[in-house]
Fold:
Amino acid sequence: MMAIKQLDRLKRLDTLIYQGKTGAPDELARRLDLSRSQLYNILDELKDLGAPIEYDRSARSFYYRDTFRIVTVAYVEFITPQGAERIYGGKFVKNIERPRQLDGTTRYL
Structure:
């Protein structure tokens, strides 16, 4: 369930940034139960994906430079053993035919 925790953390981060209520980096990291370096790693990843996140020293808060929001969506589906057989066409995934290229050669990933 780590993915759910991470999505929740990302949603809280977005809300705090949107409201301009993050506080200083150490405070924000503590609120999100992260180390300061983990916080900066997440912020760098978000910036790489196009999030216009900046820090205002006088307000002591991160903010979005432009109109921006992060939307998190999760889809969870539980598959029964019978459902797995229907999806994979048998009991063992290893029996699935490997993908072949147009020239007939087998491509291994």
Observations:
- The longest strand covers residues 53-56.
- The mean pLDDT is 83.
- The two ends are 27 Å apart (CA to CA).
- The chain is about 40% helix and 5% strand.
